[in-house]
Amino acid sequence: MVIFDNPATVPAPVGLYSHVARTDLGGKAILQLSGQVAIDADGNIVGSHDMAAQAEYIMDNAGHFAWEQVPGQYAAIIADWVARAETQADAVAA
After folding, report:
1. DSSP E strands: which ranges in the chain?
2. Residue 22: domain span
3. Which DSSP letter does residue 83 get?
4. Whether the Cβ atoms of residue 11 and residue 39 lie closer than 8 Å to each other
5. CA dist 81 to 17, 22, 62, 77, 86, Å?
6. Are 22 and 39 within 8 A, CB to CB?
7. Engineered SS bond to 54: which of 23, 38, 60, 81, CB 3.0-4.6 Å?
8. How many domains does the chain have?
9. 2, 41 contact by CB (below 8 A)
10. Where do runs of H (alpha helix) occur along the chain?
11. What CA–CA distances, in Å, run from 58 to 15, 26, 79, 86, 91?
């Protein structure tokens, strides 16, 4: 079963699509994200001319999707994934 969702923790999508599609596979789930750009809830570009800031914003949003969509037993894995992405964004900024 596929569940399409637009979490309230991120800005609404522009157009007719969903931010996330979740496919349940027994005790596991696959999340497919789409349309992730560095635009805040007011329509402003986050980190204009700053690729690291934009990447961090996008990864933070991805983290919100994961926390809302994936059962608690996977929370530590998601937290690790988000932390690694933020570390990579910091490396790009340096």
Report:
1. 2-5, 20-25, 28-33
2. 2-93
3. H
4. yes
5. 25, 18, 10, 6, 9
6. no
7. 38
8. 1
9. no
10. 51-69, 75-93
11. 18, 28, 15, 10, 16
Asked if residues 69 and 19 have their Cβ atoms less than 8 Å apart, the reply is no
For the record, the structure tokens of 5 come out as 């969702």
Residue 74 pLDDT: 57
| φ, ψ for residue 59, nearest 5 deg | -70, -35
Single-letter amino acid code for the residue at 44? N
The single-letter DSSP state of residue 73 is G
**Amino acid identity of 1?**
M
For the chain, percent of residues with pLDDT exceeding 90: 6
Amino acid at 60: D
Whole-angstrom distance, CA of residue 41 vs CA of residue 61:
12
CA dist., res. 31 & res. 60, Å (int): 15
- Torsion angle in degrees (nearest 10) through CA of 89, 9, 76, 38: -10
Of 91, 67, 92, 65, which is closest to residue 79 (Cα–Cα)? 67
Q: What pLDDT, on a 0 to 100 scale, did the predictor assign at position 76?
A: 63
